[in-house]
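The authors assume throughout that readers already know how a fold can be written as discrete tokens. In essence, backbone conformation is discretised, so a fold becomes a row of integers matching the chain in length. A single example would do more here than another paragraph of explanation. For illustration, here is how one protein appears when written out as sequence plus structure tokens:

…
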Amino acid sequence: MAKQIMAMISLSIFALLAGLALRAWRKRSTAQANEFSAPLEALEFFGEVVAQAKAFYVATTREMNHLERINAYGLGARGLAQVLVFSEGLLIVRNGERPLAIDRSQLTAVEFTQVAIDKVVEADGLVSVSWMQDGVSLATQLRIVDNSDRAVISEALTQIIGSNTKREVVK
């Protein structure tokens, strides 16, 4: 009988902790959603395809804090993605999630990094794309599958950011 009581107490504590974690995740998502509007799902005008690659969408974080995941609008889920750089912006088509489109005027920088959230890779293994959404500085980290595509994507992004005279390119 004592084992059954302990099992019930343990199960109750586990359910309580799981419920609190879920509540905190939703509260954080709501708070983040109040800071900025939903990102585009498609560019208004795509232009021509400059580069494309298969990638792993790692996370979208605050630009200055790569350890704070943005949960709002489905940006918290990682997964496989197709990255398309157009002359007018960036489109990340994620498997099982809504696409993320970033207009050229929102892009601020592209750089290589090694860490984001709970993902640590070799030096310069992640492509970090910095962008603005309603005055909030965000960064989306991507792990490009093919190493040769990493430089192609980075160069294409640098090229379209460089043609945006309102922004500074960080290398």
Residues 54 and 82 are 5 Å apart (CA to CA). The longest helix spans residues 2-35. The radius of gyration is 19 Å.
